[in-house]
Amino acid sequence: MLYMKINISCMMLALCILWTSTGTGAPLVFGSEQLTGRHAERSAIIDGTNGKSLESKAITSGKPAYGDIALAKAKALAPGLYEARFKIEAEPFLTYYSSPFSFHSWLFCQVAVSGQPGFVDRPLWWQDFANRKTPLTVTVPFEVRGKPCDVDLSVSWRDAAKVKGSATAKVYEISVERLDTGCFVRKVTPEKMVYRPGEDASAICELVNVSDNPWKGTLISELVGEMDHLQEIGRSEVTVPAGETIAINRKFKVGEQPFGCEVRATLLKDGKLVH
């Protein structure tokens, strides 16, 4: 399912994506001994309280810390929607720059699909690791489009501030799981970015079928308001041809909610959640 958030109080609209896995098979897992490091000043496989990990220590000596801590490559992933998971522990640089109004990230989990422009990443802050005694699992959703592609998965130092001291990161495993069962909601796009309370609105739901067969099911659109109040704004039977993408236009009123609302798009097949 996918959510589009509308902030009525300040008349701004933002998009928020949340993927729900329906399970399409066992995930592809890269253990610590299958990971490789690059440009790290020191790295080694260690066996600690939480199991084996690839440990990397960046020593900056007052210079920016850049470089991949751990790398994995998933070969020839078929077109579809996926989620990468990074199981890691980390500590911030002792003299890491921050202020009450600015928190810089020094670690990134990144996914790059070969043949597709750009990459998807998730920055990490010291708050992500505060008071943790167990590894953190970071998730990064991504899509493979068009044809089977190799996918590079990495955890990297990427500190833009010049800091002194050192920091350590441990990567226990990197895994990839396919989330879709052939058809999914790629995105929800609003007609415009600013709405007034009670105004007529519309949003485009983009549906993708990456399977070899036509997909038939139900598209449900809902407004999610305060206290998770749900209001259904559209329900229709849809058919997505094999290997095609279609767009469904949903019209609705944004309501009078002072703190905004969300538009939720959900796909069902035979009454069961697909995405």
Rg is 21 Å
The proportion of residues in beta strands is over 45%
Which whole number gives the mean pLDDT?
82
The low-confidence runs, each spanning 5 or more residues with pLDDT under 50, are: 3-23
Helical segment count: 1
Strand tally is 21
Shape: globular
What proportion of the residues is helical, as a percent range?
Answer: under 10%
Largest sheet: 6 strands, antiparallel
Ends distance: 5 Å
Structure at a glance:
The protein is an all-beta fold. 1% of the residues lie in helices and 59% in strands.
Give your account of this protein's structure:
The chain has 275 residues and is mainly β. 1% of the residues lie in helices and 59% in strands. The strands form 5 sheets. Strands 1, 2, 17, 18, 20 and 21 form a 6-stranded antiparallel sheet that branches. Strands 3, 4, 5, 7, 12 and 14 form a 6-stranded antiparallel sheet that branches. The radius of gyration is 21 Å and the shape is globular.
Structural descriptors:
275 residues; 1 helix; 6-stranded antiparallel sheet
What secondary-structure arrangement, pairings included, does this model have?
Elements: E1 2-7, E2 12-16, E3 28-31, E4 42-48, E5 51-59, E6 66-77, E7 80-90, E8 98-99, E9 102-103, E10 107-113, E11 120-124, H1 126-129, E12 136-144, E13 149-158, E14 166-178, E15 183-190, E16 200-209, E17 215-224, E18 230-240, E19 245-253, E20 261-269, E21 272-273
Antiparallel strand pairs: 1-2, 1-20, 3-14, 4-5, 5-14, 6-13, 7-12, 7-14, 8-9, 10-11, 10-13, 15-16, 16-19, 17-18, 17-20, 20-21
